[in-house]
Prior knowledge:
- The chain has one domain (2-249): Rossmann fold, CATH 3.40.50.300.
- Helix 6 (106-112) runs parallel beside helix 7 (132-140).
- It has an eight-stranded mixed sheet with strand order 3-4-2-5-1-6-7-8, sandwiched between helices.
- It is α/β, with parallel strands linked by helices.
- The chain is globular.
- It has helices spanning 15-28, 43-47, 59-64, 69-72, 93-97, 106-112, 132-140, 152-171, 191-204, 217-221, 229-232, 237-252; strands at residues 2-6, 33-37, 74-75, 81-84, 121-125, 143-149, 177-186, 208-214.
- Helix 8 (152-171) links the parallel strand 6 (143-149) and strand 7.
- The two termini are 16 Å apart.
- 42% of the residues lie in helices and 17% in strands.
Amino acid sequence: MIRIAVANQKGGVGKTTTAINLATALAATGWRVLLLDLDPQGNASTGLGVSQAARHHSSYDVLMGEATLEESVVATRVPRLDVVPATQDLSGAEVEMVEFERRTHRLADALDKAPVGRWDIVLMDCPPSLGLLTVNALIAARQLLVPLQCEFFALEGLSQLLQTVERIRTRFNPDLSILGVALTMFDRRNSLSRQVAEDVRACLGSAVFETVVPRNVRLSEAPSHGLPALIYDLRCSGSEAYVRLAKELMDRLPAPVIVEAA
């Protein structure tokens, strides 16, 4: 199973929107996708139409060892896309896990026990911080996808994130690599957006995806309807960008190995 952490410690960069719509696009191509919501706000869960009443188990229960991934999964309205939802309980998880052995590996251990062949890929939507929840995701992942808002302060946060990734790689997870940086919230009318995009490409080169996700009202509206933008309005500029981004993403990933579940 391919494991990707979607992370950026800066909030409001389109991280959850990216996770939801890439998961939807991958599922539409036939991949069996699991979206793991690790943000206590639970926006990825809400954006996929999972009500609070439907969250019988959550990523909190998985991290606490009180439920397995399989027991916590909720099927979404998108065929082949499942989600492990988040609840507010997750906000206390970092404090509670301090006393646990292998507290940084709780998520990796849970993913290792996932049923073989159930999913081809898991996307982990991380909270906007570099705390223990994000560290768990980075240790469990094999690749990191970084959504980056085309604004000046986003560049400062990127360097901090890359330093954290290097520490994780050195101490815990040498297999972790940067899958790519996705430029989001691009405003063509704003010269600063263009400048930031140019600076990021000059710094990171081919690590930056060619596709740029624009600012788009329909992307903002979709979560209030409990739908990914790709279903809410496939023809809007934001959805079209995420379809292109998904194609680039798949080009950088190995094809899923089809394993029949027992």
